[in-house]
Write a structure and sequence with these properties.
2 domains, four-stranded mixed β-sheet, alpha+beta
Amino acid sequence: MIRDVLSKSTNNCSRIRDSRSCAGGANHDDGTNPSRSASAVGKSSWALSRPPRWHWWLTGVIVAIYIIFSVLGLTTSNLGAKFAHGPNSTTIGPTASLRSDEYMAGTPMELSIMETGDQATTGPLAEESSVVQRIPIGPVQHLVFWDSTLTKILSFLPDAQMFAASWWLSSLVLLLAMPYWMVLMGGRWNLAWAATFLCVFSPANWWWTFQISDQLGFTVLGCTFLLLAARGAEKKRWKFAAILGILSAICLAGMVSRYLVWSLILGGGVLLATSVKILHRWRDRSLLTLISTGAVTLILALAVLWEGRRGMAALTAAVYPGQRLTTGEASDMGWTFSANFFFSLSAGQVRPVSAPYTYASNISELSTSWNFLLLIIPFALVLAYQTQRIRDRLPEIALGLWCMLWFAWGFVGTGGFGVKIPLLNSVPAARTIQIIGALFAIWLMLTLSKIKQRQLSIAITGSAVVGMILLHSGSELLLRYVPSFSYKEVLLWSLVGAIVTFVLLYAPRSSWALIASASLGLSSVIATPPLQIGLGSLRGTQTANRLSSEGQEAREKGELWATDTMAGNALLIANGVPTLSGLLRSGPVEDEWLKLDPSGRFKENWSRGGGYIFFKWSLLRHPFFTNPNYDVVEVYVNPCTLAEIYPELTTIVSDNRMSGAGLECLVPAGEIHLQDLPQSSASESAHESASPTQTASAGTSATATAQAHPSGPSGTSGTGKNKRSGISDPASERHADNTQYVYKIQR
């Protein structure tokens, strides 16, 4: 479809004797034409300039890499932190246990869908999470969440290959779609690719498991379809415009899924700029396309939310995060501009700094996108506005205002007043600082595309200012967060930022702008994650095969399992075993929790979303609730009592042996193992595993906890201090808790 548009543009070019006057600018390696007025492009037509030859080579390389990675089953998953040593599986490089949201939640749920060919096997305590996890449950969601639908349809394919293909899909879409979108918005091919690489290869994107790609990829694709549809409508190509408009609506309706905070910021900015681009032209046909596509998008989005209404209602009603209100915060410079210093930075190098001073208590929270690009934009605006009227740059202005609004929310403190601002008060300031740099990259490259004349003085001044600010930021980063850094490294990477600034301001039309941007992005993520080939012990091991078989039987009979470890939950869910414990991604099912807490005394503890549920087996007569982390619900309960409350509960899993008085309902049913450890490690694990006498001590510990809090725990008791929480450091107990003991309920 895009090739068809390009071929028509090329045919028009062939009719013009002077190829320099053609919109394609085919004689220039960067696909641009310096002799053509940028304002003329905006006034006359939406010229999708002919891509340079290197564009097709680069596209081919990216697609080839995607295919190779998919065939090899290669990802950057951190599942090796808990589930290494599986057959045909290799983990290259150190894992980061702090990314538990990926390997304890997202990855197991996706593998669960592949195992069942339908829904993930989360239990009755958790409300459906179709919108939050982008897992379709209704007909409209199956259309809008087409990527997840493909995972269901193609569940017969090898899981490792399907998982890898799904892992990289959103990044592939972003890499292929964004250059076209930016050129349609008035950008140049080299700068369009520069922005694309900076969005994909940013520390925040890689440390947050490609959530920037997830939120931007399909939205940018939808906006590209929308611009092409409006362009086709102006040429009276109605069928072409209608098809693209429908495709656009399908992609854009998916903005309401996944992490809604980042979807609002990233997707909202791109959609706003696209809409202003069409409105600025004020042509009847393109306006009709915008209105009709917007109407279809709204209908689809509302239908998606309606089908997922139970999960969304549970999420908004939960104590966390639904009822959380925030305010603007003055983030420190070291954190704000940290992306420039992420080369070879490892998780162990970060010194935790607790709130309220900052949220950046680990390397994942510390990671940001390219916020330093904001420092370059004023210099680029000076150069761009010398040759172009402000009204011809309304799309970039709209995008810029959107960027500054959200950046200010994370950079300027607003105190109690900020809590009263609707919409903004639902977005943690830290989350805006982490990802707004992706939009800065787009804003900057669109602005640089309008520069016609280089000015050495502005380029030197801009690079000097950026270099000095980065020196200060890097020094603060060293003192507050990364004590292992040296001032030589601060100086080096500040100099690199200054050089990139100079290249972008002085030679935005050249290939060096693309090379500098791509090199900066790659250098920041090259040492970030491990490389994971295969699915570790989540597939192909004796334990995985057993759980797959018993999981199918449990689904057919409506039976439930429950475990007392987060790793055990992940292993069960990944293999399609229905669990009473496990994940709480959207929010709680209140009626089910009231079976455990009839009086509702502990509602503040179990009314959580975006988190986890696991039990701690004890001898307590009544369930007792704590929160070792703000998104973790921990329930102390006797497994026999739990079986009485839930008759469908048939199997208990524990990392301790359990027997004795009060546990007569438990019948040993063998062992399972989190991973196939080498022989020496397995012997060590067996030696360190709990003895039968530990059950009594576990029960005593739970009883002591209850006695220490006779009125019940607070909503945030023990925040993060319980070492059993997989959020704190699940990898540290790899050998000690590898063995899990299985018990059947005898009634």
